[in-house]
Amino acid sequence: MGRSGLLCAALLPFAWVVPAPLLASQWPTNATQVPTLGVCRANCPSTGAPQIQGEVRLPDGTPVPNVTVQLSPQASGGSVATAVTDSSGMFDFANVGVGYSYTLQVNVPGYLPVSRSIMTFTMITSADVVLEPQPSGPKPSKHALVSVERLRVPRGAIAQFKRGERQMARGKSRAAEASFRKAIRIFPDFAESYMKLSALYADEGRFAKANRAIQHALRLQKDNSEAYGYLGYVYVKEKHPKKAVQAFHRGIHLDMDNWFAQLELGRLRYSQKQFRRALPHLLLVRQIHPQLLSAHLLLYDDLIRLNRLKEALHELDDFLSRFPHCRQAPQLRKVRAALAASLSRSH
After folding, report:
1. Are 252 and 261 in contact (CB under 8 A)?
2. pLDDT tens profile 314-343
3. Among positive and negative, which fits the CA dihedral 73, 85, 60, 210?
4. 20 to 30 Å CA-CA from 346: which of 27, 133, 179, 227?
5. What gap in Å lies between CA 304 and CA 190, rounded to an integer?
6. Strand pairing of 90-94 and 101-106?
């Protein structure tokens, strides 16, 4: 969605709800406060206790409670496990083992049955489920609309659009606005330029213009997953979290690999102190876009707040291996040493 996340010193321009220290040059104070041994013993998962967790929800993002989720090992000889979603639609299977294959199934009357193959590669595996009403008509390819539309865009418009993205990343909002506007003058149906304008206006509190821009993009491409991610972003800036959640879920429903919507929904849940609900989205972002620096930082902090210290340590190691020269790296190495020492003392 315009930002590659490859530059270590540059975080997302859309980072609006993470506490300010996460976005500054220093590491957040709370991240260095390793929980005491008593807290760790009471709340930290023990070695060899990986989990599969997720949320069952409707396409508009509404969580579905009291739904039975079934987990069956694909290898012979294993037993079938079940879990029931809580009031937030969340389910959790513990002690599933790393490196195993499972089939996850959900059957709810009135909705299409869900059957998904899952391989556990990490300590926490995300497995969100979106229930689709039955019957359901044929669905268009989630990438077809965007790819066909992009082929229609003249090179000059694309050049101006990319220039605007670079300017936006450097904080040159006026220059970026002008470039996006030039791209639209060359190609009036350039939905992506309207999306970027909506984010730029939302960042500046120009909400009327932000809404007009994103609504125009949706009129041009009503089933564009990215556009719903930007719509959710505008709603968050306007302090309409419920509408934001619905927009993010709509974008994710159209394309589960929409890392921007996944990230911003995870960020929103984090800001609401719903750390458990934020976790599956942040894990998916890391899987979809592993070079996104800010996603690693937010995931680490979320794991710390959940007292999942072993996973947090693993996340720090992954971060430092990917971004060894990042300006946060020296401080994070100190944090990593303190966290490792705490875990060592707890055993």
Report:
1. yes
2. 999 999 998 888 888 899 999 999 999 999
3. negative
4. 27
5. 42
6. unpaired
Virtual torsion, Cα 9, 10, 15, 16, nearest 10 deg: 80
> Tens of pLDDT along 60-94?
777 888 888 999 888 766 778 888 888 778 888 88
d(CA 5, CA 105): 35
Give the separation between CA 32 and CA 25, rounded to whole angstroms.
15
**What's the chain's length in residues?**
347
The token duo for 145 is: 């609309």
Confidence of residue 43 (pLDDT cuts 50, 70, 90): very low
Asked if residues 265 and 252 have their Cβ atoms less than 8 Å apart, the reply is yes
Q: Note if the bond before 241 is cis, omega within 30 degrees.
A: no
Strands (E), the chain: 51-57, 68-73, 81-84, 90-94, 101-106, 114-119, 124-126, 129-130
* pLDDT value of residue 235: 97
Could you tell me which residues are beta bridge partners of residue 101? Answer: 119
Helix crossing, 155-169 with 191-203: angle to 10°? 20
- Going 146 to 147 to 152 to 156, the CA torsion angle's sign is positive
Question: pLDDT tens digit string along 139-167?
Answer: 544 554 555 566 678 989 989 999 999 99
Indicate if the pLDDT at residue 185 is higher than 90.
Answer: yes
Amino acid at the residue 150: R
- φ, ψ for residue 46, nearest 5 deg: -80, 165
Record the tokens describing residue 39, joined without a space: 């807290």
As a whole number of angstroms, the distance between CA 162 and CA 215 comes to: 22
At 77 the pLDDT is 66
- The answer to whether residue 39 scores a pLDDT higher than 50 is no
Cα separation, 233 vs 3, in Å, equals 15
Q: Which of 16-20, 153-157, 168-172, 203-207: highest mean pLDDT?
A: 203-207
